[in-house]
Structure formats: structure tokens, C-alpha cells
Design brief:
This protein is mainly alpha-helical. It has three domains: about 140 residues; about 110 residues; about 140 residues. Helices cover about 70% and strands about 0% of the residues.
Length: about 400
């Protein structure tokens, strides 16, 4: 038995560890541990708290869902299998299910070894003192007992079947978003990746694509760095394999979710230039005043996701300002609010580009401003949307001249 001094030190440290255990988990085994500590039976106390930790880990696996565990381990897994698992295998399963992290697995596995060799569960190799017992208790509490919450697993086959089925209604979408939100990060990352794959598959019908997008859009605010990294890796893999249909769909996926800033600048450039070209072609086509609004709206949405790549800024500025000032025959009033919003958001660099282009006859904007009175008047109005403090000194004189 431990000495009175060791018992005193262990008893003194006990409340600090016990308060970390949620009240529902302070059961009979924890009480027996306290009695064992009070009498100096540290080997028995270790066994009691270890058993409490194992029971809690089993409860977490059970709450995760035994049928879902069976899907993940790809074998039958029922209650009897859970009860028959050796402690070492249970820890490995908890790590695989992300019920404990790598640190928790490492320290709990050390505790398992200590318990097997120095507790009352088996003939001991030696004894432990108060400091060793307190460390053992701290690890059991921190990595197994302190968190009473248990994430529930998501039935993978049911999720895929639902996403690939008919278009989600509001209730169905809410249910699946709640299920994915309630599971752990690793499974959520895997399922978001599956949704991305379904969206990018060229053989996927439109309803499943929209289902995938809806689920990811509802979850995107909580995307961890690992989820974002996994999506980028999947996207890059399509590019590396030369899978153009999937790569194009993946670009659209990032665009729809407002995550273009995760992509590299060359890919952002591609997305912006395509949207700019489409707006410019419509602007110069037949019935442009009726056809511009959806293309202007799309470019506006893209510009709100982040800064326009420098390589596309000049084309972006010229197209937006030309569409706003019109072509001498009029303007598209239905798209005007989008054009105004984009001009108001111009960076100092884009403002300088706008003024520089307007002072030159070597481009469409300069020719319209220089030769069409109505366009020059509208250009002056466009300058009014810009905060004078944002105008770079290099174009200040031209700015003042236009306003005069």
C-alpha cells in the first residue's frame, strides 16, 4: 500500500481531475476509484478508472452506430463484437472512427500498457506512486471521460442513395445537413468529398448535382482546413489526369459555393475571363439590352467572392465600364445596379486602369468616351461612384479633368 504522504498528495489532486468528468459519468467505478485512492490502493484505483474509460469508449462506438461501423470496417459488427473487442482493438477502432485523436490514442495506449502491468487487473511488475497514478488518471479523464458527447455516424450508403435520388425537399435537406453536422470531422470530410465527386461526374443527372450542391452549401461555413484541402486535392487531381469534364464541373462547384479564392490564380483567371467574355459578347450582340442582366449578375457574384486576378483586371474594368456607359444607342437599365456595384468596389489599381483606358483611343472604352457625348456623360457619372480618396495620385489630374 502507498504511504500516508503519497495518499495525501494523490487525494489532494483528485478533485482537480474529477471536476473534468461530466456528472453523468461519475458513476460507481469512479466512486470505487476514490475509495481505493483513500486507502492507498493505487493499483486498484487504476483498474477502476480504466474500466470506466473503456465503458465510455464503447458507449461512443455504440452511439456512433453499429451498422455504420460495420460499413466502415467492412465486416459484421454487432453488440457482441463490440463487447468481445480487446482494449487495444477498441482503441484502434476509436481512432479509425475519429472518436479519439492521434494524441488520445497514443496516451490511452500507454495507459493500457501500464494498466496491464501495474494495476490490480493482472499480476503486477511493480508499484506506482502518487504522481504516476495522477498522470494515469489525467489521461483517462482527458482522452476518454472528459467529453460526454458522442458524434453519430452517417449511413454512407443511405447518404449516397438519397443524394442520387429525387430532388431534395426542404425537410429532407434539413435532415441530412443535421446528420452531417452531428458527425465527426473525418466522416464529414469524406461525405463532402463524395458530394463533390457526384457533382463533378459527367454522368450525374441534374437533380443529384443540385442535391450535392445544396448539402455542401449548407455546410460550407463550417468547412475545416482539412475539408478545404481535400476538395482542392480532388480538384487538382482532375486537372492532373486531364479529366476536362470533371475539372470544368469542379470549377463550377467552387464558383457556386463562393470558394473561388481557394483555387490558384490561374484557375481564378480562367473563371473570370470566361464570365467577362460572355458578358462582352452579349453586350455586342443582338438585343443586348434584354440579354445582359443574367451575365452581369453572374460576373457581379464572382467579383464578390474575392479580388479579381490581376491578369484579368484590365479586361474586367473595360467590360464593366463599357457596359455601364453604353454604346451610344442606350444602356441596359436592368443590369445597371450590378454595374454600379462593381464600379463602387473597384480597387485603386482598377480605378487607375479605368481612368487610363478612358484617356486613350487605343481601346473601346477610350473611343466611346472620346467620341460619344452620352458615353462621356455616363463615364463622369461612373466616376461619381468612386470615393475620391481611393483615386491614385498618378491619375488624379485626369480624374479631376473628367469631373470638370
Amino acid at each position: 500500500m502507498a504511504s500516508d504522504e503519497e495518499i495525501s498528495y494523490a487525494w489532494r489532486d483528485l478533485p482537480r481531475e474529477l471536476k473534468e468528468i461530466p456528472a453523468p459519468l461519475r458513476g460507481e467505478l469512479v466512486a470505487r476509484m476514490c475509495v481505493a485512492v483513500s486507502t492507498g490502493l493505487f493499483d486498484g484505483a487504476m483498474n477502476y478508472i480504466w474500466n470506466a474509460a473503456i465503458l465510455q469508449l464503447r458507449a461512443k462506438v455504440r452511439n456512433f452506430g453499429l451498422p455504420i461501423v460495420a460499413q466502415i470496417v467492412q465486416s459484421d459488427f454487432e453488440e457482441k463484437h463490440l463487447l468481445e473487442l480487446q482494449d487495444s482493438k477498441l482503441l484502434e477502432l476509436c481512432l479509425k472512427l475519429n472518436l479519439v485523436d492521434e494524441d488520445g490514442f497514443f496516451f490511452l495506449d500507454q495507459c493500457r500498457d501500464v494498466r496491464n502491468n501495474f494495476s490490480a487487473a493482472h499480476p503486477t511488475l511493480g508499484t506506482v506512486n502518487d504522481r504516476e497514478f495522477t498522470t494515469f488518471l489525467n489521461r483517462c479523464v482527458r482522452y476518454a471521460l472528459a467529453d460526454a458527447s458522442s458524434p453519430k455516424g452517417v449511413d454512407i450508403s443511405a447518404f449516397i442513395s438519397a443524394v442520387k435520388g429525387a430532388r431534395f425537399n426542404g425537410t429532407q435537406l434539413t435532415v441530412w445537413v443535421e446528420r452531417l453536422s452531428a458527425t465527426h470531422d473525418a466522416q464529414r470530410q469524406m461525405l463532402v468529398g463524395m458530394a463533390h465527386g457526384i457533382y463533378c461526374d459527367p454522368n450525374t443527372p441534374e437533380p443529384p448535382r443540385l442535391n450535392s450542391l445544396d448539402v455542401c452549401n449548407a455546410l460550407k461555413a463550417g468547412f475545416t482546413a482539412a475539408v478545404r484541402s481535400d476538395l482542392i486535392n480532388r480538384h487538382s487531381e482532375y486537372a492532373a489526369k486531364g479529366d476536362e469534364p470533371r475539372h470544368t464541373a469542379s470549377l463550377q462547384f467552387f464558383e457556386k459555393l463562393g470558394l473561388l479564392t481557394l483555387l490558384n490564380e490561374s484557375e481564378q483567371h480562367t473563371v473570370f475571363v470566361k464570365a467577362i467574355d460572355r458578358l462582352w459578347n452579349v453586350h455586342n450582340g443582338m438585343n443586348n439590352f434584354y440579354n445582359e442582366p443574367p451575365f452581369a449578375e453572374r460576373l457581379h457574384e464572382l467579383s464578390q467572392q474575392g479580388a479579381v486576378p490581376e491578369t484579368a483586371q484590365e479586361q474586367f474594368v473595360e467590360t464593366i465600364v463599357c457596359c455601364y456607359i453604353g454604346n451610344g444607342y442606350g444602356v441596359c437599365w436592368a443590369a445597371e445596379s450590378n454595374y454600379q456595384s462593381m464600379i463602387r468596389a473597384f480597387s485603386p489599381r482598377e480605378i487607375a486602369t479605368m481612368i487610363r483606358l478612358a484617356t486613350s483611343n487605343g481601346n473601346v472604352l477610350g473611343r466611346r468616351v472620346g467620341s460619344v457625348t452620352a458615353c462621356r456623360t455616363r463615364f463622369k457619372a461612373a466616376l461619381g461612384f468612386i470615393d475620391p480618396a481611393s483615386v491614385p495620385n498618378g491619375v488624379r489630374a485626369d480624374y479631376d479633368n473628367f469631373l470638370r
